[in-house]
Design goal:
The chain is mostly helical. Helix content is 77%, strand content 0%. It is built from eight helices and no strands. Helix 2 runs parallel beside helix 6 and helix 4 runs antiparallel to helix 5. It is globular, with a radius of gyration of 17 Å.
Length: 179
Amino acid sequence: MLYVRRHFIYTRFLTLPEIYIVALILGTFMNTLVMHISYALLRWSAGGWHARKSLNCSLFGIITFSVFPFITQSLDIHISIFEILLFLTIVFVLIYCYAPSDTEKNPLVDSSERKKAHWKSILTTLLIALSASFFNTTTQFFIVSGILVESVLVTPLFYKLMKVRYNNYEEYAEIKQQK
């Protein structure tokens, strides 16, 4: 457990500066920050896929939170409220169906904890969606993009694409039943 905490802290302190340095260079700092905050707020309760290597984590973070905002800014993409509502609907469905999602190193073994995390994820999604309504459509787009990324990371399909086991708690339940 100590290794997991130390590894978590180590990768966070290395990955965050990389993401934000690239964002500063690309001129996307504020949009990166908005997208990353909404993602992190939902991830806290929803969990989801984790990269196995720090390099992959860094690449994922930089591409998702720095390069994606740069591309959307460069293309001058404008999104309508209808499209934002469509994305929010997708997010709600994915979070309702699949959150929380555990990892091999951190399985959610306790069913009551999984249930709490499920409802926290739904409530967090709702609060983020409601808070987005107070901003302009550009900021709404990056808020929703952050939670859309997170909602995809909790799906069994994404786990399968990444060749990682899904519902890791089930393995622990099977071991407990065998005893």
